Amino acid sequence: MYLSACIEWLFSKEYPDVTQRIYAAKRCGFSHVEFHLWRDKLLAEMATALEETQIKLSSFVVEPRRSLVDPAQHTEFLQALKESLITAQRLGSPPLVIASGFSRDGVTFSEQRTAMVNVLREAASLAEEAGIVLLLEPLNTRIDHPGMFLNDSRLGLDVVEEVGSPNLKLLFDVYHSTVMGETLVNILSGRMHLVGHVQIAQAPGRDEPCDSDWKDIIHALHVLGYRGAIGLEYKPSQPIAESLATVCAATGLSLTINKQTEKS
Hints:
alpha/beta; eight-stranded parallel beta barrel
């Protein structure tokens, strides 16, 4: 496992220019970064920064965001996906993150679940053609995303399994899962092959992971078979150097500090 910096929030106070956060991440020893939306980014400059640093992208979000559980929005969602796939190919073909959208009043759970599975089958087919993995992310409804349809990691895994594409995986966010009261081992045991990415943050504040449970969480992920990126999708409450030191101490994962890059 290795750490991936979510540069949407990490380094944002120090570097308002998101492209410069890639160079900062390199200097701090990251091999991977990720971010949220792409349409507000200078993609040509970002591509240059990625090439110069040899940093890889772990993920970014399909946008504009559209509902998976509302068939009336499926055409717009698939168009957004096609455009995001093209952008991903320009940036090294990282995985793309999607969420379910909000629950629909007056529509049964079963109907909404079926709508999500149906459009995800179409989406997975497009992703297979592009050679890119899609990441379905459950989001907590208790703090950050009230009304979101997919707020349950077990349901997310069930949907990924039902779609049955190698290009659709679950994004398991430990923060969202913890807020929803889930138990990691119970959720992921025997199903880690369905997980494509993991993100972490301290709950409930969504700041840097700092408590004594994190080494156990990282160990459990390793025992269950996860070997990929651990995305640091948190909002630093400390200066960035101190924040990253706190994360490394808490998780037992390390960064190799690199003082020199090709561009400062």
